[in-house]
Design goal:
heterodimer, A: 170 residues, alpha+beta, 9 helices, elongated, B: 237 residues, transmembrane helix (chain B)
Amino acid sequence: MEEKELLSQLISLSYTKTDITRRLRILREFFEQKYYSSGGRSLEEFLKTAKCTKEDSDMLLSLDSKFYKNFTKSNTYPCLAKLDRLLNKEEVIHVYLPYEPMAEEKEKIGSWFKKNISKNVILDIQVDSSITLGCAFAYKGIYHNFSLKYFMDIKRREISQLLDKYVQNP
Amino acid sequence: MNPNLLQLLIFIINIALLLLLFLILYYLQKEKNLLDKNKKAPEEEIIKDAKIKSETIIQRAIQKAQSILAAAELKGLSLVDREKLESKKLAKDYKKEITGLEKELKKKFETSANSAHQSYEEFIGSIESKIQEHLTGNQKVLEEKSSDFIDNAKNSLNSFTAVMENRVKQQVDEEMAKTRREIEEYKTHRQKIMDEKIVDILEEVLLLTVNKKLSLADQSDFIYKALEEAKKSHAFK
Protein backbone atom coordinates (compact mmCIF):
# COMPACT_ATOMS: atom_id res chain seq x y z
CA MET A 1 0.00 0.00 0.00
CA GLU A 2 1.42 3.35 -0.86
CA GLU A 3 2.08 5.99 1.75
CA LYS A 4 -0.58 8.17 0.19
CA GLU A 5 -3.21 5.55 0.75
CA LEU A 6 -1.97 4.99 4.30
CA LEU A 7 -2.20 8.71 4.97
CA SER A 8 -5.61 8.82 3.38
CA GLN A 9 -6.83 6.17 5.76
CA LEU A 10 -5.45 8.06 8.71
CA ILE A 11 -7.00 11.30 7.52
CA SER A 12 -10.39 9.74 6.94
CA LEU A 13 -10.48 8.61 10.56
CA SER A 14 -9.01 11.80 12.05
CA TYR A 15 -10.25 15.37 12.13
CA THR A 16 -7.37 17.59 12.94
CA LYS A 17 -3.74 17.73 11.92
CA THR A 18 -2.81 17.63 15.57
CA ASP A 19 -4.70 14.35 15.97
CA ILE A 20 -2.98 12.83 12.92
CA THR A 21 0.43 13.98 14.09
CA ARG A 22 -0.23 12.57 17.54
CA ARG A 23 -1.42 9.29 16.11
CA LEU A 24 1.63 9.02 13.91
CA ARG A 25 3.73 9.47 17.05
CA ILE A 26 1.79 6.73 18.80
CA LEU A 27 2.31 4.49 15.77
CA ARG A 28 6.04 5.20 15.88
CA GLU A 29 6.18 4.31 19.53
CA PHE A 30 4.20 1.17 18.86
CA PHE A 31 6.46 0.06 16.02
CA GLU A 32 9.58 0.96 17.99
CA GLN A 33 8.55 -1.27 20.86
CA LYS A 34 7.42 -3.94 18.41
CA TYR A 35 10.55 -4.08 16.30
CA TYR A 36 13.33 -2.65 18.40
CA SER A 37 12.73 -3.86 21.90
CA SER A 38 12.44 -7.25 23.45
CA GLY A 39 8.96 -8.59 23.87
CA GLY A 40 6.98 -6.42 21.51
CA ARG A 41 3.41 -6.12 22.66
CA SER A 42 0.30 -6.17 20.54
CA LEU A 43 -1.43 -3.00 19.60
CA GLU A 44 -4.20 -3.46 22.15
CA GLU A 45 -1.77 -4.05 24.95
CA PHE A 46 0.36 -1.17 23.86
CA LEU A 47 -2.55 1.23 23.64
CA LYS A 48 -3.66 0.33 27.16
CA THR A 49 -0.41 1.65 28.60
CA ALA A 50 0.46 4.28 26.02
CA LYS A 51 -0.14 7.96 26.59
CA CYS A 52 -3.07 8.45 24.30
CA THR A 53 -6.74 9.29 24.46
CA LYS A 54 -9.57 6.89 24.06
CA GLU A 55 -10.32 8.38 20.71
CA ASP A 56 -6.78 7.76 19.56
CA SER A 57 -6.80 4.19 20.68
CA ASP A 58 -10.25 3.60 19.17
CA MET A 59 -9.14 5.04 15.92
CA LEU A 60 -5.90 3.05 15.78
CA LEU A 61 -7.72 -0.12 16.65
CA SER A 62 -10.27 0.52 13.92
CA LEU A 63 -7.54 0.54 11.30
CA ASP A 64 -7.35 -2.47 9.06
CA SER A 65 -4.63 -5.10 9.69
CA LYS A 66 -3.53 -4.48 6.12
CA PHE A 67 -2.56 -0.99 7.29
CA TYR A 68 -0.14 -2.29 9.89
CA LYS A 69 1.33 -4.89 7.51
CA ASN A 70 2.82 -2.03 5.49
CA PHE A 71 5.21 -1.24 8.34
CA THR A 72 8.17 -3.58 8.61
CA LYS A 73 11.29 -3.36 10.65
CA SER A 74 13.20 -1.95 7.73
CA ASN A 75 10.74 0.58 6.43
CA THR A 76 8.96 1.84 9.53
CA TYR A 77 11.02 4.97 10.03
CA PRO A 78 11.19 5.96 6.35
CA CYS A 79 7.52 5.22 5.93
CA LEU A 80 6.53 7.28 8.92
CA ALA A 81 8.82 10.10 7.85
CA LYS A 82 7.24 10.10 4.43
CA LEU A 83 3.80 10.09 5.97
CA ASP A 84 4.85 13.12 8.00
CA ARG A 85 6.10 14.89 4.88
CA LEU A 86 2.95 14.08 2.96
CA LEU A 87 0.85 15.28 5.84
CA ASN A 88 2.60 18.65 5.77
CA LYS A 89 1.78 18.99 2.09
CA GLU A 90 -1.89 18.34 2.61
CA GLU A 91 -4.42 21.19 2.41
CA VAL A 92 -5.45 22.22 5.90
CA ILE A 93 -8.52 24.22 6.83
CA HIS A 94 -7.68 26.54 9.69
CA VAL A 95 -10.79 26.95 11.80
CA TYR A 96 -10.99 29.81 14.30
CA LEU A 97 -13.40 29.42 17.17
CA PRO A 98 -14.24 31.87 19.96
CA TYR A 99 -13.44 29.28 22.63
CA GLU A 100 -11.45 26.08 23.11
CA PRO A 101 -13.80 23.19 22.24
CA MET A 102 -13.87 19.94 24.14
CA ALA A 103 -12.84 16.74 22.44
CA GLU A 104 -16.43 15.85 21.69
CA GLU A 105 -17.06 19.24 20.21
CA LYS A 106 -14.00 18.90 18.05
CA GLU A 107 -15.26 15.56 16.88
CA LYS A 108 -18.62 17.02 16.01
CA ILE A 109 -17.05 19.84 14.07
CA GLY A 110 -14.71 17.42 12.34
CA SER A 111 -17.62 15.15 11.48
CA TRP A 112 -19.49 18.07 10.00
CA PHE A 113 -16.56 18.90 7.78
CA LYS A 114 -16.13 15.30 6.70
CA LYS A 115 -19.81 15.02 5.96
CA ASN A 116 -20.32 18.31 4.23
CA ILE A 117 -16.98 19.16 2.67
CA SER A 118 -14.76 16.13 2.14
CA LYS A 119 -13.93 12.99 4.06
CA ASN A 120 -10.25 13.76 3.57
CA VAL A 121 -10.42 17.23 5.00
CA ILE A 122 -7.84 18.10 7.67
CA LEU A 123 -8.67 20.80 10.22
CA ASP A 124 -6.50 22.98 12.36
CA ILE A 125 -8.72 24.30 15.15
CA GLN A 126 -7.47 27.47 16.85
CA VAL A 127 -8.96 29.90 19.34
CA ASP A 128 -9.52 33.52 18.29
CA SER A 129 -10.96 35.58 21.13
CA SER A 130 -11.79 38.44 18.74
CA ILE A 131 -14.51 36.32 17.19
CA THR A 132 -17.88 36.78 18.80
CA LEU A 133 -20.15 33.83 18.22
CA GLY A 134 -19.90 31.74 15.07
CA CYS A 135 -16.53 30.93 13.58
CA ALA A 136 -14.01 31.88 10.94
CA PHE A 137 -11.81 29.76 8.75
CA ALA A 138 -9.06 30.04 6.19
CA TYR A 139 -9.39 27.76 3.19
CA LYS A 140 -7.14 27.76 0.12
CA GLY A 141 -5.50 30.92 1.29
CA ILE A 142 -8.77 32.85 1.77
CA TYR A 143 -10.01 33.92 5.15
CA HIS A 144 -13.76 33.71 5.74
CA ASN A 145 -15.40 35.27 8.72
CA PHE A 146 -18.76 33.84 9.68
CA SER A 147 -18.87 35.23 13.15
CA LEU A 148 -21.55 37.50 14.64
CA LYS A 149 -20.09 40.36 12.58
CA TYR A 150 -21.01 38.53 9.36
CA PHE A 151 -24.59 37.97 10.44
CA MET A 152 -24.94 41.50 11.64
CA ASP A 153 -23.53 42.77 8.34
CA ILE A 154 -26.21 40.80 6.52
CA LYS A 155 -28.84 42.47 8.67
CA ARG A 156 -27.17 45.89 8.58
CA ARG A 157 -29.97 47.62 6.73
CA GLU A 158 -32.63 46.20 9.04
CA ILE A 159 -30.56 47.20 12.06
CA SER A 160 -30.15 50.75 10.71
CA GLN A 161 -33.88 50.99 10.02
CA LEU A 162 -34.59 49.72 13.48
CA LEU A 163 -32.26 52.32 15.00
CA ASP A 164 -33.79 55.06 12.82
CA LYS A 165 -37.21 54.01 14.03
CA TYR A 166 -36.11 54.32 17.62
CA VAL A 167 -34.43 57.68 16.96
CA GLN A 168 -37.50 59.16 15.27
CA ASN A 169 -39.92 57.77 17.85
CA PRO A 170 -37.97 57.85 21.09
CA MET B 1 23.61 185.09 -25.31
CA ASN B 2 25.07 182.68 -22.91
CA PRO B 3 27.13 184.38 -20.16
CA ASN B 4 29.68 181.57 -20.33
CA LEU B 5 30.15 182.15 -24.01
CA LEU B 6 30.58 185.81 -23.36
CA GLN B 7 33.24 185.23 -20.79
CA LEU B 8 35.00 182.86 -23.13
CA LEU B 9 34.98 185.49 -25.84
CA ILE B 10 36.47 188.08 -23.51
CA PHE B 11 39.09 185.62 -22.45
CA ILE B 12 40.01 184.81 -26.07
CA ILE B 13 40.27 188.52 -26.91
CA ASN B 14 42.53 189.04 -23.91
CA ILE B 15 44.72 186.17 -25.00
CA ALA B 16 44.87 187.52 -28.50
CA LEU B 17 45.96 190.91 -27.22
CA LEU B 18 48.59 189.33 -25.06
CA LEU B 19 49.91 187.38 -28.00
CA LEU B 20 50.02 190.53 -30.08
CA LEU B 21 51.97 192.25 -27.38
CA PHE B 22 54.44 189.45 -27.13
CA LEU B 23 54.86 189.44 -30.86
CA ILE B 24 55.60 193.09 -30.86
CA LEU B 25 58.09 192.69 -28.08
CA TYR B 26 59.75 189.88 -29.93
CA TYR B 27 60.16 191.95 -33.06
CA LEU B 28 61.55 194.76 -31.05
CA GLN B 29 64.01 192.49 -29.40
CA LYS B 30 64.97 191.15 -32.73
CA GLU B 31 65.41 194.62 -34.07
CA LYS B 32 67.54 195.48 -31.11
CA ASN B 33 69.64 192.43 -31.52
CA LEU B 34 70.07 193.22 -35.13
CA LEU B 35 71.05 196.69 -34.25
CA ASP B 36 73.36 195.39 -31.60
CA LYS B 37 74.90 193.05 -34.13
CA ASN B 38 75.50 195.54 -36.71
CA LYS B 39 76.71 197.96 -34.04
CA LYS B 40 78.87 200.32 -35.99
CA ALA B 41 79.51 203.61 -34.36
CA PRO B 42 78.38 206.12 -36.84
CA GLU B 43 74.66 205.21 -37.08
CA GLU B 44 73.57 206.07 -33.53
CA GLU B 45 70.96 208.42 -34.84
CA ILE B 46 69.43 205.74 -36.83
CA ILE B 47 69.38 203.68 -33.78
CA LYS B 48 67.86 206.33 -31.75
CA ASP B 49 65.27 206.99 -34.44
CA ALA B 50 64.61 203.37 -34.63
CA LYS B 51 64.31 203.26 -30.86
CA ILE B 52 61.96 206.14 -30.89
CA LYS B 53 59.96 204.63 -33.71
CA SER B 54 59.79 201.35 -32.00
CA GLU B 55 58.71 202.91 -28.80
CA THR B 56 56.13 204.86 -30.75
CA ILE B 57 54.95 201.74 -32.41
CA ILE B 58 54.86 200.04 -29.11
CA GLN B 59 52.96 202.85 -27.61
CA ARG B 60 50.54 202.88 -30.45
CA ALA B 61 50.20 199.16 -30.25
CA ILE B 62 49.63 199.39 -26.57
CA GLN B 63 47.10 202.12 -27.04
CA LYS B 64 45.47 200.24 -29.81
CA ALA B 65 45.45 197.15 -27.73
CA GLN B 66 44.09 199.10 -24.83
CA SER B 67 41.44 200.67 -26.97
CA ILE B 68 40.62 197.33 -28.50
CA LEU B 69 40.59 195.92 -25.04
CA ALA B 70 38.40 198.72 -23.77
CA ALA B 71 36.11 198.40 -26.75
CA ALA B 72 36.04 194.68 -26.26
CA GLU B 73 35.37 195.22 -22.62
CA LEU B 74 32.67 197.70 -23.41
CA LYS B 75 31.29 195.49 -26.03
CA GLY B 76 31.55 192.61 -23.72
CA LEU B 77 29.86 194.52 -20.95
CA SER B 78 27.19 195.78 -23.29
CA LEU B 79 26.81 192.31 -24.55
CA VAL B 80 26.65 191.07 -21.02
CA ASP B 81 24.09 193.70 -20.16
CA ARG B 82 22.18 192.96 -23.28
CA GLU B 83 22.46 189.36 -22.52
CA LYS B 84 21.39 189.98 -19.00
CA LEU B 85 18.43 191.97 -20.18
CA GLU B 86 17.61 189.46 -22.82
CA SER B 87 18.04 186.62 -20.43
CA LYS B 88 15.90 188.41 -17.90
CA LYS B 89 13.35 189.02 -20.55
CA LEU B 90 13.75 185.47 -21.75
CA ALA B 91 13.43 184.21 -18.26
CA LYS B 92 10.40 186.38 -17.74
CA ASP B 93 8.88 185.21 -21.03
CA TYR B 94 9.89 181.71 -20.24
CA LYS B 95 8.37 181.97 -16.83
CA LYS B 96 5.27 183.45 -18.32
CA GLU B 97 5.12 180.80 -20.94
CA ILE B 98 5.82 178.15 -18.37
CA THR B 99 3.12 179.51 -16.11
CA GLY B 100 0.70 179.62 -19.03
CA LEU B 101 1.76 176.19 -20.09
CA GLU B 102 1.49 175.04 -16.54
CA LYS B 103 -1.96 176.38 -16.25
CA GLU B 104 -2.87 174.91 -19.57
CA LEU B 105 -1.33 171.60 -18.68
CA LYS B 106 -2.97 171.71 -15.32
CA LYS B 107 -6.25 172.42 -16.97
CA LYS B 108 -5.69 169.70 -19.52
CA PHE B 109 -4.48 167.36 -16.86
CA GLU B 110 -7.51 168.11 -14.75
CA THR B 111 -9.73 167.54 -17.74
CA SER B 112 -7.90 164.35 -18.62
CA ALA B 113 -7.92 163.24 -15.03
CA ASN B 114 -11.62 163.92 -14.79
CA SER B 115 -12.32 162.15 -18.02
CA ALA B 116 -9.98 159.30 -17.01
CA HIS B 117 -11.67 159.18 -13.63
CA GLN B 118 -15.04 159.16 -15.32
CA SER B 119 -13.94 156.53 -17.80
CA TYR B 120 -12.39 154.53 -15.04
CA GLU B 121 -15.57 154.77 -13.02
CA GLU B 122 -17.59 153.80 -16.03
CA PHE B 123 -15.18 150.98 -16.70
CA ILE B 124 -15.30 149.85 -13.09
CA GLY B 125 -19.04 150.07 -13.16
CA SER B 126 -19.25 148.03 -16.33
CA ILE B 127 -16.73 145.51 -14.99
CA GLU B 128 -18.67 145.28 -11.76
CA SER B 129 -21.90 144.73 -13.57
CA LYS B 130 -20.27 142.16 -15.85
CA ILE B 131 -18.67 140.42 -12.92
CA GLN B 132 -21.94 140.47 -11.11
CA GLU B 133 -23.63 139.03 -14.18
CA HIS B 134 -20.98 136.36 -14.45
CA LEU B 135 -21.20 135.57 -10.79
CA THR B 136 -24.94 135.35 -10.96
CA GLY B 137 -24.70 133.21 -14.06
CA ASN B 138 -22.01 131.02 -12.53
CA GLN B 139 -23.94 130.69 -9.34
CA LYS B 140 -26.97 129.63 -11.29
CA VAL B 141 -24.95 127.18 -13.33
CA LEU B 142 -23.24 125.94 -10.15
CA GLU B 143 -26.55 125.48 -8.45
CA GLU B 144 -27.96 123.62 -11.42
CA LYS B 145 -24.88 121.45 -11.76
CA SER B 146 -24.77 120.85 -8.01
CA SER B 147 -28.36 119.80 -7.91
CA ASP B 148 -27.82 117.56 -10.96
CA PHE B 149 -24.71 116.12 -9.36
CA ILE B 150 -26.50 115.56 -6.09
CA ASP B 151 -29.38 113.91 -7.89
CA ASN B 152 -27.00 111.72 -9.88
CA ALA B 153 -25.00 110.88 -6.77
CA LYS B 154 -28.18 110.07 -4.91
CA ASN B 155 -29.39 107.83 -7.73
CA SER B 156 -25.97 106.19 -8.06
CA LEU B 157 -25.78 105.66 -4.31
CA ASN B 158 -29.27 104.21 -4.25
CA SER B 159 -28.54 101.89 -7.13
CA PHE B 160 -25.14 100.99 -5.65
CA THR B 161 -26.74 100.32 -2.28
CA ALA B 162 -29.36 98.18 -3.97
CA VAL B 163 -26.72 96.29 -5.96
CA MET B 164 -24.55 95.80 -2.88
CA GLU B 165 -27.56 94.72 -0.88
CA ASN B 166 -28.46 92.18 -3.54
CA ARG B 167 -24.89 91.01 -3.81
CA VAL B 168 -24.47 90.70 -0.07
CA LYS B 169 -27.81 88.94 0.18
CA GLN B 170 -26.80 86.62 -2.64
CA GLN B 171 -23.48 85.89 -1.02
CA VAL B 172 -25.08 85.34 2.33
CA ASP B 173 -27.62 83.02 0.73
CA GLU B 174 -24.85 81.16 -1.06
CA GLU B 175 -22.84 80.88 2.13
CA MET B 176 -25.92 79.69 3.98
CA ALA B 177 -26.68 77.16 1.27
CA LYS B 178 -23.05 76.06 1.28
CA THR B 179 -23.08 75.79 5.04
CA ARG B 180 -26.33 73.84 4.93
CA ARG B 181 -24.85 71.56 2.29
CA GLU B 182 -21.75 71.07 4.39
CA ILE B 183 -23.88 70.34 7.42
CA GLU B 184 -25.92 67.86 5.42
CA GLU B 185 -22.76 66.28 4.05
CA TYR B 186 -21.33 66.12 7.52
CA LYS B 187 -24.55 64.61 8.81
CA THR B 188 -24.58 62.10 5.95
CA HIS B 189 -20.93 61.31 6.51
CA ARG B 190 -21.45 60.88 10.22
CA GLN B 191 -24.54 58.82 9.55
CA LYS B 192 -22.53 56.67 7.18
CA ILE B 193 -19.76 56.25 9.73
CA MET B 194 -22.34 55.49 12.39
CA ASP B 195 -24.02 52.97 10.09
CA GLU B 196 -20.68 51.36 9.38
CA LYS B 197 -19.58 51.42 12.97
CA ILE B 198 -22.94 50.53 14.49
CA VAL B 199 -22.43 46.90 13.69
CA ASP B 200 -19.03 46.98 15.37
CA ILE B 201 -20.53 48.82 18.31
CA LEU B 202 -23.37 46.37 18.60
CA GLU B 203 -20.94 43.50 18.27
CA GLU B 204 -18.87 44.85 21.11
CA VAL B 205 -21.97 45.47 23.16
CA LEU B 206 -23.13 41.95 22.54
CA LEU B 207 -19.66 40.65 23.30
CA LEU B 208 -19.72 42.42 26.62
CA THR B 209 -23.20 41.47 27.62
CA VAL B 210 -24.11 38.24 25.86
CA ASN B 211 -20.92 36.27 25.31
CA LYS B 212 -20.42 35.35 28.92
CA LYS B 213 -24.07 34.57 29.37
CA LEU B 214 -24.37 32.15 26.47
CA SER B 215 -23.84 28.52 27.21
CA LEU B 216 -21.34 26.45 25.33
CA ALA B 217 -24.20 24.62 23.70
CA ASP B 218 -25.64 27.88 22.38
CA GLN B 219 -22.24 28.92 21.19
CA SER B 220 -21.77 25.57 19.56
CA ASP B 221 -25.10 25.95 17.78
CA PHE B 222 -23.96 29.26 16.49
CA ILE B 223 -20.78 27.66 15.14
CA TYR B 224 -22.79 25.13 13.14
CA LYS B 225 -25.08 27.86 11.94
CA ALA B 226 -22.01 29.73 10.74
CA LEU B 227 -20.64 26.64 9.01
CA GLU B 228 -23.98 26.05 7.30
CA GLU B 229 -24.02 29.63 6.14
CA ALA B 230 -20.46 29.25 4.83
CA LYS B 231 -21.50 26.15 2.93
CA LYS B 232 -24.51 27.97 1.49
CA SER B 233 -22.36 30.84 0.33
CA HIS B 234 -19.96 28.39 -1.42
CA ALA B 235 -17.01 29.39 0.73
CA PHE B 236 -15.64 25.85 0.49
CA LYS B 237 -15.52 25.78 -3.30
